[in-house]
Design brief:
globular, alpha+beta, single chain, six-stranded antiparallel β-sheet, Double-stranded beta-helix, seven-stranded antiparallel β-sheet
């Protein structure tokens, strides 16, 4: 189906929001919980599926929802419809610091592959599906997922990424990327996982056991701060159960313990 045409504004810098303007009866679909605010006159409904297969029946919708569960997403997508008079706006934000990427599917070969959890919202008419990497080893060892999200259509879609987003154009080239730093890529790019060959690098390098190998011709989007890396660093520096601070400044950490009555 022909995608609805959306106007949008991306607001902010490191904690971005995309505000989408809907004409009467235009629809945008989004991940559950992504909405930040909306004008009066916009109605929303959680549905199984993206609405591109209106006559697929309950079995087809359940199958599609089951595939979404494999990517760690909700069973449902939320459909936001402007049922008011005149233009109305609805805004969506990412669940962690980073950037929002606007993807014109029509200009990107009508198909984009995203890492799980990267999809934010899209124009009605965008098919949100999953795709399996060609080699089982890529998903089994890749850490970030053997299952990718697949967006197909001719309208606008929006993805979110952690930290700074880097867009690279490959022309019959190869690029090696940390498994967490890949956001997405277009058709024409092949995706595989390569194991680190050096045992010393594997044990002491701190860069992980595997790298994503991207090859071919197309567009690749990378992120500087995967959420998994941010979460690991927060956990490493969180206070221990014994009450001892694990801050970067040991003197300040001990001073804080004294102020809290912990004399150890």
């Amino acid at each position: 189906m022909k995608s609805h045409e959306l106007d949008y504004t991306i607001i902010g810098d490191d904690m971005q929001v995309v505000e989408i303007e809907l004409d009467p009866y235009e629809i945008v679909i989004a991940e559950a919980g992504a909405m930040g605010w909306m004008d009066d006159g916009i109605h929303y409904e959680a549905k199984m599926g993206d609405g591109t297969e209106a006559n697929e029946g309950m079995l087809g919708k359940l199958f599609g929802a089951g595939k979404r569960v494999l990517t760690g997403e909700s069973l449902f997508l939320t459909h936001f419809t402007n049922k008011g008079l005149g233009k109305k706006r609805v805004a969506f934000s990412a669940p962690f610091p980073g950037k929002i990427i606007a993807l014109s599917l029509e200009n990107l070969g009508r198909t984009v592959f995203l890492q799980k959890n990267a999809f934010l919202c899209a124009a009605m008419g965008t098919k949100v599906d999953i795709a399996f990497t060609k080699r089982f080893g890529a998903g089994f060892f890749g850490g970030e997922g053997f299952i990718l999200q697949k967006l197909t259509g001719d309208g606008l879609a929006f993805a979110h990424a952690g930290g700074t987003v880097i867009e690279k154009q490959l022309h019959n080239e190869r690029l090696f990327v940390d498994t967490g730093c890949l956001v997405g890529f277009t058709t024409g790019i092949s995706y595989d996982i390569q194991m680190v060959r050096s045992m010393k690098s594997m044990l002491f390098g701190g860069e992980g056991l595997f790298l994503v190998t991207l090859s071919g011709t197309g567009t690749v989007w990378l992120q500087s701060l995967p959420f998994s890396r941010l979460a690991d660093r927060i956990l490493q520096n969180a206070p221990s159960t014994g009450g001892t601070r694990q801050g970067e400044g040991s003197v300040l950490g001990k001073l804080g313990n004294l102020l809290d009555g912990d004399n150890r």
